[in-house]
Automatic annotation (TrEMBL):
<dbReference type="GO" id="GO:0008270">
    <property type="term" value="F:zinc ion binding"/>
</dbReference>
<protein>
    <submittedName>
        <fullName>NAD(P)-dependent alcohol dehydrogenase</fullName>
    </submittedName>
</protein>
<dbReference type="InterPro" id="IPR036291">
    <property type="entry name" value="NAD(P)-bd_dom_sf"/>
</dbReference>
<dbReference type="GO" id="GO:0008106">
    <property type="term" value="F:alcohol dehydrogenase (NADP+) activity"/>
</dbReference>
<dbReference type="InterPro" id="IPR002328">
    <property type="entry name" value="ADH_Zn_CS"/>
</dbReference>
<comment type="similarity">
    <text>Belongs to the zinc-containing alcohol dehydrogenase family.</text>
</comment>
<dbReference type="InterPro" id="IPR013149">
    <property type="entry name" value="ADH-like_C"/>
</dbReference>
<keyword id="KW-0479">Metal-binding</keyword>
<keyword id="KW-0560">Oxidoreductase</keyword>
<keyword id="KW-0862">Zinc</keyword>
<dbReference type="InterPro" id="IPR047109">
    <property type="entry name" value="CAD-like"/>
</dbReference>
<dbReference type="InterPro" id="IPR011032">
    <property type="entry name" value="GroES-like_sf"/>
</dbReference>
<dbReference type="InterPro" id="IPR020843">
    <property type="entry name" value="ER"/>
</dbReference>
<dbReference type="InterPro" id="IPR013154">
    <property type="entry name" value="ADH-like_N"/>
</dbReference>
<feature type="domain" description="Enoyl reductase (ER)">
    <location>
        <begin position="15"/>
        <end position="343"/>
    </location>
</feature>
<dbReference type="Pfam" id="PF08240">
    <property type="entry name" value="ADH_N"/>
</dbReference>
<dbReference type="Pfam" id="PF00107">
    <property type="entry name" value="ADH_zinc_N"/>
</dbReference>
Length: 349
C-alpha cells in the first residue's frame, strides 16, 4: 500500500517552503523504506526551490543529504535489514546496466539517473520528492550503510557535501605533497578542507569572508587567502597544484587560475550556470587545466562514509527544526551558516 508522507516543499520560486503531504509508493521488490531522522540543507536545494537552474517541477520537496532507519525492505533486498542506520544522497535510481552504472558512476547513467528530488521515476512517472520528509522509499543499491559507531546526527551532510568534495580529491590524486586550495568556505568547502587535510595535502582556504580565516585554520588549513585582497592573491600566483572551487554562482575564474602552478588543475563544483570567459593564456602558460566534477558514484559514496568513520571526520553543523527551514534558507543566502544546517526530523515535520 502506498503511504502518506509529510514534508516541506514549495509551489513556486517566490514562495516559502510549507508543510505538504503526498504519497510514497508501495515497496517494489528491490526497494528500502526509510524513516528519516536527519536531513542536511544543501545550497542546491535552495537553487532548485528558486528555479535558479530552470527545470524545477513544482511542487518541489528538496533534500538529498538523508540519514534514517530502515523500516521495511522489498522481497529481493538482501543488503539492508530493518533497523539499520542508512544514508541516501543525491540519487535514488539509475538503469544499472550501462557502462557508467556498471563502473560505479551511476551519476552519469546513459538513461539519466533519477535524482532524489525533482526527477521523474522510470516506472510510474512521478516526480521524486527528497529528504525534507518523514520517510522515503529508495532502490536498495542507492542506500548506503552508515558505519557502526558513527554519530548519526552529524552524518547527513556527507551524502552531498562530503562526496562532492571527496570524489574530485580522489580522482586527481590529492595526497601528501599536494599543495591544495579550496575556494569558498561553505558546506562543500569546509568538507573539502577536512578531507584534503585527512588525505595528507597541505590545504589553503581562499575566502571572501575575512572572519572565516581563523575557522579555516581550525578546520586544518595551514593558511588562508582573502580573495578580494589583490596583494594576497598576487603573492599566491603559481602556488597550488590543485584548486577546488565551490563558489555557488557564476564568476570570473582568471584570478584563481593564476594561482595554479605547473600542470595544476582547478575543479569547479559550484557554479552550474554560464560563466564569463577566461583568458586562454592563463591555461596555456604553466600548462594549467580547468574541469568539473559531479557528486560521485554510489560505491565511492560508501567508500567516503567508511573513510570519514575511520578518520572521525564530520561536518560542522547547526541543527534546526523543520519549521525553521525558511529562516535557514535566508541565512544560507547571506552566507551565515558555519557550515551546514541539518534538520532534526524527530522534532517534527
Ligand atoms: P554554501 O554553503 O552556500 O557555500 C558557498 C560558499 O561560497 C560561501 O560560503 C562563500 O564562502 C562562497 N561564496 C558565496 N557567494 C560567493 C560569491 N558571490 N563570490 C565568491 N564566493 C562566494 O554552498 P554549498 O552548499 O557549499 O554549495 C556550493 C555550490 O555547489 C552550490 O552552487 C551547489 O549547488 C553546488 N553543488 C554542486 C554539486 C556537484 O555535484 N558539483 C553538489 C552539491 C552542491 P566564503 O565566505 O568563504 O567566500
Ligand atoms: Zn547537494
Amino acid at each position: 500500500m502506498p503511504t502518506t508522507a509529510k514534508g516541506w516543499g514549495t509551489d513556486a520560486p517566490d514562495q516559502p517552503l510549507k508543510r505538504m503531504t503526498f504519497e510514497r509508493r508501495d515497496l517494489r521488490p528491490n526497494d528500502v523504506a526509510i524513516k528519516i531522522t536527519y536531513a542536511g540543507i544543501c545550497h542546491s536545494d535552495l537553487h532548485t526551490c528558486r528555479n535558479d537552474w530552470g527545470g524545477t517541477r513544482y511542487p518541489v520537496i528538496p533534500g538529498h543529504e538523508i540519514v534514517g532507519k530502515v523500516t521495511a525492505v522489498g522481497d529481493e533486498v538482501t543488503r539492508h535489514r530493518v533497523g539499520e542506520t542508512v544514508a541516501v544522497g543525491c540519487m535514488v535510481d539509475s538503469c544499472m546496466e550501462c557502462d557508467q552504472c556498471l563502473e560505479g558512476w551511476e551519476v552519469f547513467c546513459r538513461k539519466g539517473c533519477v535524482q532524489t528530488y525533482n526527477s521523474k521515476d522510470y516506472h510510474d512517472g512521478t516526480v521524486s520528492k527528497g529528504g525534507y520528509t518523514d520517510h522515503i522509499v529508495v532502490r536498495d543499491h542507492f542506500v548506503c550503510k552508515v558505519p557502526d559507531g558513527m554519530d548519526e546526527s552529524r552524518v547527513a551532510p556527507l551524502l552531498c557535501a562530503g562526496i562532492t568534495t571527496y570524489s574530485p580529491l580522489r580522482q586527481y590524486g590529492v595526497g601528501p605533497g599536494t599543495k591544495m586550495a579550496v575556494v569558498g568556505l561553505g558546506g562543500l568547502g569546509h568538507m573539502a578542507v577536512k578531507l584534503g587535510v585527512a588525505m595528507g595535502a597541505d590545504v589553503t582556504m581562499i575566502t571572501t569572508t575575512p572572519s572565516k580565516g581563523q575557522d579555516a585554520r581550525e578546520l586544518g588549513a595551514s593558511d588562508f587567502i582573502i580573495s578580494t585582497d589583490a596583494e594576497q592573491m598576487k603573492a599566491a600566483v603559481t602556488r597550488f597544484d590543485f584548486i577546488l572551487n565551490t563558489i555557488p554562482v557564476s564568476h570570473e575564474i582568471d584570478g584563481y587560475l593564476q594561482l595554479l602552478g605547473r600542470s595544476g588543475r582547478m575543479v569547479i563544483v559550484g557554479a552550474l550556470t554560464p560563466m564569463p570567459g577566461f583568458v586562454g593564456m592563463n591555461l596555456i602558460w604553466w600548462n594549467r587545466a580547468v574541469g568539473g566534477s559531479a557528486i560521485g558514484g554510489i560505491p565511492e559514496t560508501q567508500e567516503m562514509l567508511d573513510f570519514c568513520a575511520a578518520k572521525d571526520i564530520y561536518p560542522d553543523i547547526e541543527t534546526i527544526r523543520m519549521d525553521q527551514v525558511n529562516e535557514a534558507y535566508e541565512r544560507l543566502l547571506k552566507n551565515d551558516v558555519r557550515y551546514r544546517f541539518v534538520i532534526d526530523m524527530e522534532q517534527g515535520v
